[in-house]
Amino acid sequence: MTAPPVTQFPECDFLLSPLTGWTRAHWEALADRLLDGLLPYATPNFAQYRLPGPPSHSGPWSDGLEGFARSFLLAAFRIAGAEGRVAPALIERYAAGLAAGTDPRSDERWPPITDRGQPMVEAASIAIALHESRPWLWDQLDDTVRGQVTDWLGHFVGAVANDSNWRLFQVITEEFLASVGAPHSRGEIDAGLARLDDWYRGGGWYTDGDGKKFDYYNAWALHLYPVLWARIAGARADAETVARHRARLREFLTAHQYFFGSDGAPVHQGRSLTYRFAAAAPLWAGALADATPLPPGRTRRLASGTLKHFAERGVPDEHGLLSLGWYRPFRPVTQRYSGPASPYWASKAFLGLLLPETHPVWTATEEPGPVDTADATLALPAPGWLLHSTAADGIVRLVNHGSDRLPPPPATDEDSPHYAKLAYSTATAPDTPIGPDNHIALLAEAEDGTPSQRGRIHPLGVEGRRAASRQTTGIETVSVVHGPWEVRVHRVPGNSRVREGGWAVADDAEAPHARTGPGHALARRTDGLTSALVGLYGWSDAEGTVVRARDANAYGRHSATPVLEGTGPLLVTLAVLTRDDARTTGASATLDDEGVIDIRFPDGTRERISTSPGPSPDPAPEGTS
């Protein structure tokens, strides 16, 4: 097979886009590159794209459908955005694929939609793509093919979807069926939208099903699909429901704009991270739905920044393909459902192409994002997160005291590295499987010193510059942030031996430099990215170490984490991640007679924290509204 040519990007326009240089033409060029890269892997009639790599748990047949459906989403945005002025072959091959994929006699037919089956996910992408490209595809199909398509999509009616963002796939698919006069269930559409209301936790945040499941599914599913549903439903949509969704999206984007570093990297947290720049999708959705608080130049700066971030780091690869990984292929950011074509949900990032080229998001001068101009701290009580970012190094850090992605009790408390950590950032990824980074663990009495898991996170509050939680082991932690620093105050049950880790820094070229000593440890990359951990109180017997790993980190093959071991019951630690001055000297913590910790940050800023036990977790059953 011959690889497509390397993407030929237009010249950067730093007058229109002073921060990224990117314009609509760059988005169109990368969309074309991604679509062309798939061609060598198409079946003869283009109904499936069988990409190389191990299959998902659904198998190659379903994976081939996934390749069609997710790339069709990208093709539809490209076709509609250009008002059909694209190479005719692009339209022709998706028309041919629709005909072959829905023909029950075809060797390329798609697997049927069944209860909780992966084709449910792909059906929604096909429905969205058919709606958005309607004048150039659906309206041009003959009656036989249109009947085949509605027959295949129609199996969603009466089927059982997973009780999560999957309910919205049913909403989308059946609303498209309604739009073309095909059988559908208005009751199932309404029930799916009502279930979304059950998961709303305020502040623009949904949990993805019952429990504390907060991640980018807020961005590329739970806010996105209601906007796309309203576009399909048109006058059929209940006006109050649409207004409610738009208000929530507007509030979400007020916070979401803070999740991007100055280099365009999104915060590396949660599952399905191989969708990468799909994190930009709600930025465009807000503009499409007139539901954004952001000026148009900032919308484009954030979206172009994240797309450019990956493009400059080898995404897509030399064959024009999206691999299962972050930059390079890296399977630990995937799940059992991830197949070779799964990353093409990244197509959602190209939603902005639906906005005409005369729209202000494409014509306004780029405006800085929050991290470009000033240090910021943002408390997000609904997910239990505290963001702090620094303009000097452009890094955004997420302190996690709320999201564990565990289903409600009595489910087991098993840690995931992408949910269980104390912190995440735009410059680092957690070591996988579970490493010591951004984790405090009890060390078992056994000789092997097996560290405990964090388990279920019981939020104790997020406000101002503080966040707190209690974990299953009984350790209670209060985090206080200032600039690039986080001070963690841990109340440890009994007088237990514990281990705490800072940020894992990683590099492909060489192992990070390490420096250790009594009560402190540091790991630094050659470009200056530095992670340091310093014991401020209670670590008198601690000797700092740096734990190294290989091929355990999405950001690089060589990773290193500063670590301390000590004994409770009260420990105070300074953690820092920065590309700027990694100052730790001058920091201190003292305990007064009233049980109050007086914290001094390296720049002299002071904070006082009571060491008395925090409030009990909310006793209400998780998942109730």
What can you see in these coordinates?
- The chain has helices at about 25-40, 60-80, 90-100, 120-130, 145-155, 165-180, 185-200, 215-220, 225-235, 240-255, 280-290, 295-310, 360-365, 370-375; strands at about 200, 205, 375-380, 385-390, 395-400, 425, 440, 460-465, 465-470, 475-480, 485-490, 495-500, 505, 515, 520-525, 530-535, 545-555, 555-565, 570-580, 590, 595-600, 605-610.
- The protein has about 625 residues and is of the alpha+beta class.
- A hairpin with a 5-residue loop joins strand 21 (about 595-600) and strand 22 (about 605-610).
- The longest helix has 22 residues, at about 60-80.
- Mean pLDDT is about 95; it is low at about 615-625.
Layout of strands and helices, then pairs:
Layout: H1 24-38, H2 60-81, H3 88-101, H4 119-132, H5 143-153, H6 166-179, H7 186-198, E1 200-202, E2 205-206, H8 217-222, H9 224-233, H10 239-256, H11 281-288, H12 296-311, H13 360-363, H14 370-373, E3 376-380, E4 385-390, E5 395-400, E6 423-425, E7 440-442, E8 458-463, E9 466-470, E10 476-482, E11 485-491, E12 497-501, E13 505-507, E14 513-517, E15 520-524, E16 530-537, E17 545-553, E18 556-567, E19 570-578, E20 588-591, E21 596-600, E22 606-610
Antiparallel strand pairs: 1-2, 3-4, 4-5, 5-6, 7-12, 8-9, 9-10, 10-11, 11-19, 12-18, 13-18, 14-15, 15-16, 16-19, 17-18, 20-21, 21-22
